[in-house]
Amino acid sequence: MADGPLADPAGDLVIADRVIEKIAARAALDVAGVVRHSGAVGSLLGATGDRLGIGSDLPRAAVDSSGRARRLSLTVALAWPCAVTRVAQEIRARVADDLLEFTGDRPVRVDVTVRQLVPRGEVSRRKSGYIDLPPLEDADSRAETHRSEEESS
């Protein structure tokens, strides 16, 4: 009976780097002071902007799984004002703890880069569902310009 299926080795579980990156980004958002931030430039450049690290959505994580040790780089936006050093330390700890809990593996290094500081007033407006519209005089002048262009054609 020892030769049955239960005696076979269990095999390997491979967790894709993309999954690790999603867990890390989600864990960073659970730290007080870390906010979601979307950059308009990144959406215009698409994948090129992501590779260059310009204007893409934050937080963003990248995994380096070369060799046996896993390293992680996080790029985040923080609500300003805040204690940047303390928040970065909390991000490192939270991400490492969550990765250990969900994957069974703790990264040997978690680097945190603060790419954007977002004023707290802007953060609270976004969370309340507000969006900023252009002032009325700008909208009126654009409508007038549009009418002038239609009349001249």
TrEMBL record:
* InterPro entries in alphabetical order: Asp23
Region annotation Disordered: residue ranges?
126-153
Amino acid composition bias (Basic and acidic residues), ranges on this chain: 139-153
Its family remark reads:
Belongs to the asp23 family.
Spell out the protein name for this chain. Answer: Asp23/Gls24 family envelope stress response protein
Q: Which organism is it from?
A: Gordonia spumicola
Q: What is the lineage of its organism?
A: Bacteria, Bacillati, Actinomycetota, Actinomycetes, Mycobacteriales
